[in-house]
């Protein structure tokens, strides 16, 4: 078991890293250092550096739902998270034939005493969503769809949230050092004893915590993850609304369709509507290890997504807001996850290295837990993880029969990113869409 005076080094200043530092400091740890490769915070290509992320409790798993409820309560603390959380509500839907996940999520949310509105038919979904538009815009008819509105959720400004908690870490005495790329792990008698950075600086630690997200596999191939986690690129697109359109859609909830993985947000301050598909994603192999391809590594070209996903995004968007789906996409992005087969994170002491702790594999649903996820990693540092949680997140857990219920709609596995199939500016225009009629 660690002592509060033990030096702790955390690699990565994203969701896992900053939240872990915060919770260790709140527990009385006095020597916590966060090292971040990027020269600025939050990192330009980090998945947590964005203007919105979904904040939802709607899981079919009571562990995540309960943890998310705790997170939502803390998101409302403006002292820690100024200008971050927006309680727009989350409209959870799926085709009636694929409703197992949302049915279970509804029962879980109901058991937590949350404010819910059941929407058993497509007509109910249409009426509910249309009411937020106040007759100023059009929503789909939602044929053969069901769902519910969870009023205890919404979205958070992702960059603001991380920046807010980073400021708290510094106020509590933690050190957050950007521009520090870790070259390799230091070892003493086969046990990690700190890190050495590219600039030659060394940081010694009793525990080194790896929170490097989608870069974990490519930065630390020696971890021998045995295929438990892998970096995957997820496709994002945006449309720009006029001021009048933004006013009409400003009160809409986040829309999340578990039937096809599609989700979209209310307009941002810049009148942008962002959308994405929560899928099994794309790998991009270098030396047989999937490695993020981003705006930092590949410039603007690193933002392009496959043409097929441009069409899929627009088609799914048209199934929610047919008129907006006719607008050109003004921007795309590959957002990089660290994915596991079962959708569970990887948190805990490395099975063969007592000085190394992992906090990674967010699976595209970790951001909402920014206020609380670090307490699980802090439990690992202190050696007090309860057995069930320890097994759930273990690096060497058995995943041969596991599945991720939130992505069950996608039958095929991860696909390799093919550069020649990425979109061009012409692909972002409306004629490529397969629009869905509205009544």
From TrEMBL:
GO terms for molecular function: flavin adenine dinucleotide binding; L-pipecolate oxidase activity; proline dehydrogenase activity; sarcosine oxidase activity. Residues 8-379 form the FAD dependent oxidoreductase domain. The chain crosses the membrane at residues 7-25. Keywords: FAD, Flavoprotein, Membrane, Oxidoreductase, Transmembrane, Transmembrane helix. It comes from the Eukaryota. Pfam families: DAO. The keyword RNA-binding does not apply. The keyword Transmembrane helix applies. Its cofactor is FAD. Belongs to the MSOX/MTOX family. This is FAD dependent oxidoreductase. It comes from Cylindrobasidium torrendii FP15055 ss-10.
């Amino acid at each position: 078991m660690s002592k509060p005076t033990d030096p702790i080094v955390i690699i990565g200043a994203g969701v896992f890293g900053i939240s872990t530092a915060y919770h260790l400091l709140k527990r009385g740890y006095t020597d916590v250092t966060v090292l971040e490769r990027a020269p600025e915070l939050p990192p330009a290509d980090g998945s947590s550096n964005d203007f919105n992320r979904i904040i939802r409790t709607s899981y079919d798993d009571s562990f995540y739902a309960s943890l998310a409820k705790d997170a939502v309560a803390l998101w409302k603390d403006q002292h820690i998270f100024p200008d971050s959380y927006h309680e727009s509500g989350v409209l959870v839907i799926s085709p009636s034939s694929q409703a197992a996940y949302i049915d279970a999520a509804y029962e879980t949310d109901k058991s937590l005493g949350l404010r819910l509105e059941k929407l058993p038919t497509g007509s109910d979904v249409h009426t509910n969503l249309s009411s937020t538009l106040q007759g100023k815009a059009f929503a789909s008819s939602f044929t053969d769809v069901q769902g519910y509105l969870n009023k205890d959720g919404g979205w958070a400004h992702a960059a603001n949230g991380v920046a807010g908690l980073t400021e708290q870490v510094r106020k509590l005495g933690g050190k957050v050092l950007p521009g520090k790329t870790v070259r390799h792990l230091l070892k003493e008698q086969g046990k990690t004893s700190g890190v050495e950075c590219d600039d030659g600086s060394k940081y010694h630690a009793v525990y080194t915590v790896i929170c490097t997200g989608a870069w974990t596999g490519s930065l630390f191939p020696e971890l021998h993850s045995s295929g438990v986690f892998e970096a995957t690129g997820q496709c994002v697109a945006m449309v720009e609304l006029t001021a009048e359109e933004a006013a009409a859609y400003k009160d809409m909830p986040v829309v999340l369709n578990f039937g096809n993985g599609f989700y979209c947000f209310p307009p941002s301050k810049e009148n942008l509507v962002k959308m994405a598909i929560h899928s099994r994603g794309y790998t991009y192999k270098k030396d047989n290890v999937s490695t993020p391809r981003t705006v930092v590594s590949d410039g603007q070209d690193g933002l392009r997504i496959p043409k097929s996903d441009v069409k899929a995004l627009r088609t799914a968007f048209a199934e929610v807001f047919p008129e907006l789906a006719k607008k050109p996409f003004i921007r795309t992005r590959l957002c990089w996850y660290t994915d596991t087969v079962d959708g569970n994170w990887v948190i805990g002491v490395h099975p063969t290295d007592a000085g190394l702790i992992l906090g990674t594999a967010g699976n595209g649903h970790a951001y909402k837990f920014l206020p609380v996820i670090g307490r699980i990693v802090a439990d690992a540092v202190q050696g007090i993880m309860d057995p069930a949680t320890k097994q759930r997140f273990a690096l060497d857990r058995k995943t041969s029969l596991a599945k991720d219920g939130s992505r069950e709609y996608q039958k095929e596995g991860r696909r390799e990113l093919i550069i020649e199939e990425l979109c061009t500016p012409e692909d972002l225009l409306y004629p490529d869409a397969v629009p869905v009629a509205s009544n």
